[in-house]
Amino acid sequence: MKLELFKYIDDVLDLFEYHRQELVSINKEVRNYFSDVLKDDERALNLSTRIKTPQSLREKLIRRNYYIKYPTPFEGFKKVPDLIGLRIECRFIKDEKEIYQKIIDEFRIYCGKGYYASNINKNIRLNLEDIQPQVLNNGFKIYKLDGLYKNSKTSYSFELQIKSLVNLFWGEIDHKILYKNYNYMIVEDFFRDIMHSIIDNLFMVDKQLMILYDHVTNSDASGKDPAEKQLKVLLSKIIHDVFINKIYGELGFVFNIKASTDIIVEFIFMKLKKNKENSYGEDFKIGRA
Fold it and tell me: How far is 237 from 223, CA to CA, in rounded Å?
């Protein structure tokens, strides 16, 4: 039995090596297609692709019992869903859904068995019947689409993932600690609790970063200097705290003077700008006759 299994795996790996150059060519074509789709989308930070390594392919054949499911090596080779892998990286979790929607809008031609093709390249197809995001065995949600490159001569499977920065980070941890660590089963519940704690904290970080990003973007779009705005807020707080302590020391109670301190800061900045306009020396430049 073991000899038959080892021969099966070796035969699949031989097929993989035989078709490697064709996989390299298809990988490039698929990458170029999705790069063009997302070239003007600021939400997409990076598009990375890879061809499965022989070691990774060997592990998958064993872990997923390909020898039992697909009796012939050729069938097993064709059933590997991620011989080619693509990953679109974006900033925030909410961007994952928006990029997913943008991509599937490109695939309108039904090809059968849940697959749809694009008008631009009919060889590239995506399965759009799976519910997204998919829920993995570990409870993690991910936008993962099965793809198929098919022309008149051949067909190869590929996998497309869409991941935000925090999900990319968490996914790498999960993949290295749990997915490929066969010893973790002894303390599975402990690891699961820790991993869920990590992802919860990462979700909070994602929300905070999104708030910060939106704030900076809105400040830039309004034409205001965000540094000046933040300086005004800081000065107003300093003035407020100084006077509120003074009032409490003298009267024994406090009241809200924030509006007044904001007006004081605005007056200070207006005065500074006026003085700068009257300072001709700063703008005077020596020219050549």
Answer: 24
